[in-house]
Amino acid sequence: MQKKYVLVGTGGRAEFFYGALVRDFKETSRLVAFCDINQTRMNYANQLLEEKYHHAKINTYLANEFDQMIAKEKPDIVIVTTVDRTHHKYIIRALELGCDVITEKPMTTDAEKTQAIIDAINRTGNQVRVTFNYRYAPHNTKIRELIRDGVIGEVYSVNFEWALDTQHGADYFRRWHRNKANSGGLLVHKSTHHFDLVNFWLDTSPDTVYATGGLRFYGRENAEARGETKFYQRAHGSKQAETDPFAIQLADNPHLKAMYLDAEKEDGYQRDQSVFGDGINIEDTLGVMVTYKNKAILTYSLNAYLPWEGFIVSFNGSKGRIEVQVREHSYINSGGSKSDEGKLAEKSVRVLPMFGEPYEVEIVEGEGGHGGGDPLLLQDLFGLPEEDEFNRAASHIDGATSILTGIAGNLSLQTGQPVKVDHLIDFNKVK
Ligand SMILES: NC(=O)c1ccc[n+]([C@@H]2O[C@H](COP(=O)([O-])OP(=O)(O)OC[C@H]3O[C@@H](n4cnc5c(N)ncnc54)[C@H](O)[C@@H]3O)[C@@H](O)[C@H]2O)c1
Q1: Pocket of ligand 1 contains residue 272 by CB under 6 Å
Q2: 229-257 burial string, b = 16+ CB within 10 Å, else e?
Q3: 161 - beta bridge partners?
Q4: What does the longest C-alpha to C-alpha distance in the chain come to?
Q5: What angle do CA 299, 304, 306 make, to 5 degrees?
Q6: Is 349 in contact with 314 (CB distance < 8 Å)?
Q7: Over the Cα atoms of the chain, what is R_g?
Q8: Between β-strands 59-62 and 29-36, what pairing exists: parallel, antiparallel or unpaired?
Q9: How far is CA 389 from CA 37, 124, 142, 283, 386, in A?
Q10: Does position 137 have pLDDT exceeding 90, yes or no?
Q11: Could you tell me if the CB of 103 is within 6 A of ligand 1?
Q12: CA of 108 to the centre of ligand 1 (A)
């Protein structure tokens, strides 16, 4: 039977879902409406539906008409791809109005909103899924398999370094993410992927978190300290920005122009702010230590201004070590093809037995974004149900445990103290 979908938040990420729904999952799914605060962006999404996907336009509703949309369109599932700060609002209302929810990561941005989502799930009995595409990347699934099968015995410690580059990493500092109230900072917005991977790989959940870090590279004060004297607020129309390698020119890219520049008149949102401007209050340099319920420890770092993008992770266990290096192609959100997002440039997964020859693990990567994980995630979300020995479909509990590491990290940044994750929300209420 076909399921009916509506989507709220028609920005850069939305097409990943609505495009797949109307192109690849016609038998199982029907997309019936868009919702957003911005009519111009919804109209552009409808234009893409017609021109790129040869699909008829669908109804559009402004954000304050969300309830009317649910009453009229009667969807089974609401897809939430709005600004992070607003996820909980749509998740909770959709559940209350009898729908299931598929939400983009991070599920939400703080402990109070996490609790409110969990309470709504318990109250309504409806479901929330979080779209952790990285779990589905074949190399990440393979790491889970190696650890699950005891190839390096019990894992005692993990070293995990995530590198964001001067294109994609910088993009968080041009957009709404630069305000912590919108995104929870990179420890929540971005690291939710990474903390979810550790939970998934080790099949455990976080116990205690200590974090340190700050804004060291981006932001006006840092640029001034490095001797910069000329500044601009946004790239569009700025002479200054023409020579700034960190600037993005919305008018030069028809997709970015239609989605953001032409839509500004409605909500004032500027997607091309200077990364060396005022008002950035998220960190770009982060170090985190986590102790897990199974006693494993994690040392993690995230830096957002590096010459390459990807990650290096090593696992130390009772029978040996696994070393992984994955380099991704650089991209900026909505700046190119969806299938280029997180596309692999190179990867290596090496097992070093405690007493034996090290060997490279063969991994067949798939086509598509995030190392071939994106098409697999879409199949799992919208295709016919299939058994998955790795249980990659992420529930609200996975959504909560991954953000709570970052939320605890944010508290630790404020207080300088380690934070117990169990103190953040009422886990007795988590079913
Ligand atoms: N898993 C991934 O790889 C991945 C990649 C990119 C983005 N994302 C997630 O997708 C979500 C959207 O990110 P994006 O890059 O598309 O951002 P975006 O800025 O391009 O789009 C956000 C959309 O939300 C709308 N919006 C803002 N406030 C709203 C409100 N109160 N009510 C309804 N709509 C509102 C905006 O008008 C805009 O259309 C974020 O949660 C982000 O974390 C995930």
Answers
A1: no
A2: eeebbbbbebeebeebebbbebeebeebb
A3: 301, 312
A4: 65
A5: 95
A6: no
A7: 21
A8: parallel
A9: 40, 29, 12, 37, 10
A10: yes
A11: no
A12: 12
Q: What is the pTM of this model?
A: 0.96
How big is the chain, counted in residues? 431
Q: Is the CB of 62 under 6 A from ligand 1?
A: no
Task: For a ligand 1 pocket test, name from 104, 162, 259 the mutation site with the most ligand atoms within 8 angstroms of its C-beta.
Answer: 104
Geometric angle at alpha carbon 290, from 288 and 294, rounded to 5°: 165
Ligand 1 pocket, residue 12 CB under 6 Å = yes
Which of 33, 85, 35, 30 lies closest to 57, judged by CA?
A: 33
Alpha-carbon distances of 149 from 105, 116, 153, 200, 392, rounded to whole Å: 28, 37, 8, 14, 16
Q: Is 43 in the pocket of ligand 1 (CB under 6 A)?
A: no
> Is residue 78 classed as helix, strand or coil in its secondary structure?
strand
Residue 38 near ligand 1, beta carbon < 6 Å: yes
pLDDT number for residue 368:
80
**Residue to mutate, 65, 81, 172, ligand 1, most ligand atoms under 8 Å from C-beta:** 81
Question: C-alpha 99: how far from its chain's center?
Answer: 23
Whether the CB-CB separation of 303 and 283 falls below 8 Å is answered with no
Residue 376 has pLDDT above 60, yes or no: yes
d(CA 105, CA 292) in angstroms, rounded, equals: 21
**CB 377 less than 6 A from any atom of ligand 1:** no
pLDDT tens for 336-354 read: 665 566 666 789 999 999 9
Give CA 266 to chain center in angstroms.
Answer: 26
Report residue 247: phi and psi, to 5°: -80, 150
Looking at ligand 1, which residue's alpha carbon is closest to its atom 18?
11
37 lines ligand 1 (CB under 6 A): yes
CB 332 within 8 A of CB 167: yes
Which SS3 state, helix, strand or coil, does residue 431 take?
A: coil
